[in-house]
Design brief:
- By secondary structure, the protein is mostly beta strands.
- It is built from no helices and 15 strands.
- The protein has a 4-stranded antiparallel β-sheet, with no helix packed on it.
Length: 170
């Protein structure tokens, strides 16, 4: 988080979310994430809702794969059974985009204010990394198996075609 000069990391051994000073890397706070499903974590910070969201691919189907935490005190304010393989914060809205590498073939828009999924669209199996294309207001989603980058309207998740890419594109 550039404005707060903070970095966030998940220590998967201790199952804690670490708040770090971005300049000194000094630990500022550690928050318990025992309820987070084990698996590769992704983190997004939203200043508008003062939240930190942590999502896990859920290698093991236990706990909650998506947790929304109150940034100031670390308390869980929302949870969902969404084991996303990737997470991207919208650049100006309190929205998170989710893709699923394993169990689902879709892309979702999670509204942090509503604390729920408000849009979803079919995607290729094993869809992966994402980027926001501001000029065209598009969400770009890599599809490594299909050798393409899927294009979605960033507001509605309406499919807008795809770009050809090399096999394994991420």
């Amino acid at each position: 988080d550039r404005l707060a000069n903070q970095l966030f990391a998940v220590n998967t051994d201790t199952r804690q979310l670490l708040y770090l000073d971005a300049t000194t890397l000094k630990l500022q706070k550690a928050v318990d994430l025992a309820q987070l499903s084990p698996g590769d974590p992704w983190i997004a910070v939203d200043a508008q809702t003062d939240t930190v969201t942590v999502v896990s691919e859920a290698d093991v189907r236990s706990g909650d794969p998506l947790l929304v935490l109150d940034r100031s005190n670390g308390h869980t304010v929302a949870r969902a059974d969404l084991d996303a393989g990737n997470l991207l914060k919208h650049p100006s809205r309190s929205w998170l985009y989710l893709t699923f590498f394993r169990r689902r073939s879709e892309v979702m828009l999670y509204d942090l204010e509503a604390r729920s999924v408000t849009r979803r669209a079919p995607a290729d199996p094993r869809a992966e990394r994402m980027a926001f294309w501001k000029t065209n207001n598009e969400l770009l989603v890599t599809s490594p198996i299909e050798s393409r980058v899927l294009r979605f309207d960033a507001d509605t998740l309406t499919p807008k075609g795809y770009l050809h890419a090399l096999f394994g594109v991420r």
